Amino acid sequence: xxxxxxxxxLRGFLETNLVxxxxxxxxxxAFSALKTVEVPLSALQGLEVTSVTRHGKFIAVGVDGLWLAxxxxxxxxxxxxxxxxxxxxxxxxxxxxxRVTAEGPPTSPDAENPGEGPVxxxxxxxxTQKHLAVFVxxxxxxxxxxxxxxxxxxxxxFDREAFARVLAEHGRTQLKGLLKDQSVLAGIGNAYSDEIxxxxxxxxxxxxxxxxxxxxxxxxxxxxxxxxxxxxxARGAKxxxxxxxxxxxxxxxGRKGEPCPTCGTPIAEVSFADTFLxxxxxxxxxxxxxxxxxxSKLLK
Length: 300
Prior knowledge:
The protein is an alpha+beta fold. The protein has 2 domains: 4-147, Alpha-Beta Barrel (N-terminal domain of MutM-like DNA repair proteins); 160-299, Helicase, Ruva Protein, domain 3. 30% of the residues lie in helices and 20% in strands. The protein has 9 helices and 10 strands. It has helices at residues 4-18, 144-147, 160-169, 175-180, 190-200, 213-234, 239-249, 281-284, 293-299, and strands at 22-28, 49-55, 58-63, 66-71, 76-81, 96-103, 119-125, 133-137, 268-271, 276-279. The strands form 3 sheets. A 4-stranded antiparallel sheet has the order 1-6-7-5, with no helix packed on it. Helix 3 packs across helix 6 (213-234). The longest helix is centred in the last third of the chain and has 22 residues, at 213-234. It starts with a helix and ends with a helix.
């Protein structure tokens, strides 16, 4: 799943390559992806792209008074086209959800193609479960997922004291769930929450209200450090490079059985119905293995 660093990388790429261009077409291939009906996709055609912003894991393309917002969900991705494929977009059950083309010169001199275009991007989603979401709105508060977002942990004004207040407000919530809850903190998902908790040496199941002052500081520092470093790595990367870049730099997520880079203990995993978490018993739980929820059910 794309998380804050990858989404920020995509945002920056789109900002460089789209702002200043005019939307030529916006074609839907998966009708289930479009979650709004008040403003049609066709309303974007002929309008100039004025901005590209990120809100948690949402990207919003500002188009002369309208917004094209989207969330890539667990299996979605963005592919950049230069040139745009000649194959027409047709409704299907395949991975393609949306294709947008744009023409005219971009504002940024750093654009991949500073010419007239056309260029564009496609939103695709692998698998049979389709959760990728597209919105065309006049105001971003009309997107439910954006309206409910908590503070951005890297946002201006979000300091250690603000983070401590968040933890106090959700004192009975386990840290893993708290970090992933978009209404509490915007942008962190399954992979980076594992990385952050390992860096802070905290159990994923520890309750937020039980943290010491040192724990709070360590967790806040880990959030800022891990996310900040990942965003720096993503900056300037092309969309095709961002996926592999994420996997390459993850220390423990997706590395069950490998030695922890900090202490050498084999990384352990807890499996759930449709997801998993990874942790280091040596760094985070005092050597204790956490119960695997899926295996526990099988053994009953």
